[in-house]
Amino acid sequence: MSDSPEGAASDPDAEIMRATYRALQEHGYADLTIKRIADEYGKSTAAIHYHYDTKDDLLVAFLDYILDRFVETIHEVETTDPEQRLNLLLDKLLVAPEDHHDLLIAVLEMRSQAPYKDAFGERFQQNDEYVRYMLETVIDRGIQEDVFVDADTEHVARALMTIVDGARARAVVLDESDTLATARRTADEYVSAVLKHETSERE
Amino acid sequence: MSDSPEGAASDPDAEIMRATYRALQEHGYADLTIKRIADEYGKSTAAIHYHYDTKDDLLVAFLDYILDRFVETIHEVETTDPEQRLNLLLDKLLVAPEDHHDLLIAVLEMRSQAPYKDAFGERFQQNDEYVRYMLETVIDRGIQEDVFVDADTEHVARALMTIVDGARARAVVLDESDTLATARRTADEYVSAVLKHETSERE
After folding, report:
1. Which secondary-structure segment (H or E) carries B114?
2. Which residues of chain B are within 8 Å of residue A172 when distances are taken between CB atoms?
3. Could you give phi then psi for residue A51, rounded to 5 degrees?
4. How confident is the model at residue A98 (pLDDT cuts 50, 70, 90)?
5. Which of A112-126, B93-107, B144-158 has the highest mean predicted lDDT (pLDDT)?
6. Which of B31, B154, B186 should be substituted to probe chain A, the one whose Cβ sees the most A Cβ atoms within 10 Å?
7. Is the terminal CB of chain B with fewer CB neighbours within 10 Å at N or C?
8. In which region does residue A99 sit, left (phi positive, over 0), alpha (psi from -120 to 50) or beta (all else)?
9. Residues B173, A121: contact at Cβ < 8 Å?
């Protein structure tokens, strides 16, 4: 542990994940190799293979790692007010952190490989289910508290994820900040239309 | 021309495009080679290289070809009623023709390559602009005829394309018919909210 470049708190898995992140940002998915990840890790490829048999195993772990990071940021949303909480969730889903663009590109590449790699597909499905579960929970809460009108919660969560995935797919080809801003506004308009009481429907 | 397997009306370019379509359906983007396209074409790789210098040149032409086919189906929409016309456009954008799934996967793969291949990116941008132009035209017409309320036409077109691209991205990872049906319903709800007069707002 003492040779960790990022402090004693790091474990090898987390370090390899951070190295993968940097290697993906630099080389993209198609040109990613265990050698390039090892270079970022500052160790030999054998040190990587000790933890992960294949590049795909490592990338599946990386998808889990991204999901975990995302879940952590979601748990930072501390408000219990359903309307505010839904807003903040949509912010997290649709506002790009800095230096995020290369990761977005790499994730879209992995996503496009899902039909050929079951383990990738499973992670994307799991990720989607988890985020929809969080959206459904806050929407159900809002309906119970009469902050939102009665609605088909499952459909609304799927609709919002369609907008989120659309924004991400468009960000790779078009201007990222525009596509995310458009999607954020669209999500607001959609939430107003299907969840808000009449009075607040048209600002 | 007489050796065309698909009738005298075929030209070599169109035949090569159809061969590319079949090769993509069978092998996917990553495993696509000029040899495999030539096999589908029923001629030598030299016959392909006579028309296209590289695989990327051919694939750029293929993206144009798909756009042209889509524009043709759009021109089949004969109604001039803005509400009906918008509905039919959304149907075309969000209802999958049979055997369409493999093409959807191949197109998402090409889309994920856009950051590395400018010519791919240009085609996707051009395609997006053209479809948004068609959506804007019908929405503007509807506003002029007072079928729709006044709205930010450009934003509404971008919002609808976000839903369309989201559905396509999700279809590759999740169940295709579900994601397209969800997106179609979301598009309807969105159109009702931002374009329809109050009376028809909540069915």
Report:
1. none
2. 111-112, 114-115
3. -95, -30
4. low
5. B144-158
6. B186
7. C
8. left
9. yes
Here the ipTM equals 0.89
Calpha distance A152→A145 (Å, rounded): 16
Tell me: pLDDT of A132 over 50.
yes
B198: left (phi over 0), alpha (psi -120 to 50) or beta: alpha
Question: Using CB atoms, which residue from A158, A163, A172 is nearest to B114?
Answer: A172
Q: What is the mean pLDDT of residues B131-160?
A: 96
CB contact under 8 A, B169 and A116: no
Helices in chain B by DSSP H: which ranges?
Answer: 12-27, 34-41, 45-49, 55-75, 82-94, 101-113, 118-144, 153-173, 176-195
Task: Give the global pTM.
Answer: 0.89
B76 pLDDT exceeds 90? no
Geometric angle at alpha carbon B96, from B92 and B102, rounded to 5°: 135
Whose tokens are 């395609």? That residue is B127
**pLDDT of B34:** 95
Tell me the count of A-B CB pairs closer than 8 A.
135
The tens digit of pLDDT for each residue in B161-197 reads 999 999 999 999 988 789 999 999 999 999 999 999 8
Q: What is the DSSP letter of B96?
A: P
Per the structure block, which two tokens stand in for A42? 């500052």
CA atoms of A23 and A45, how far apart (whole Å) = 14
User: How far is residue A143's CA from residue A196's CA, in Å, rounded to a whole number?
Assistant: 10
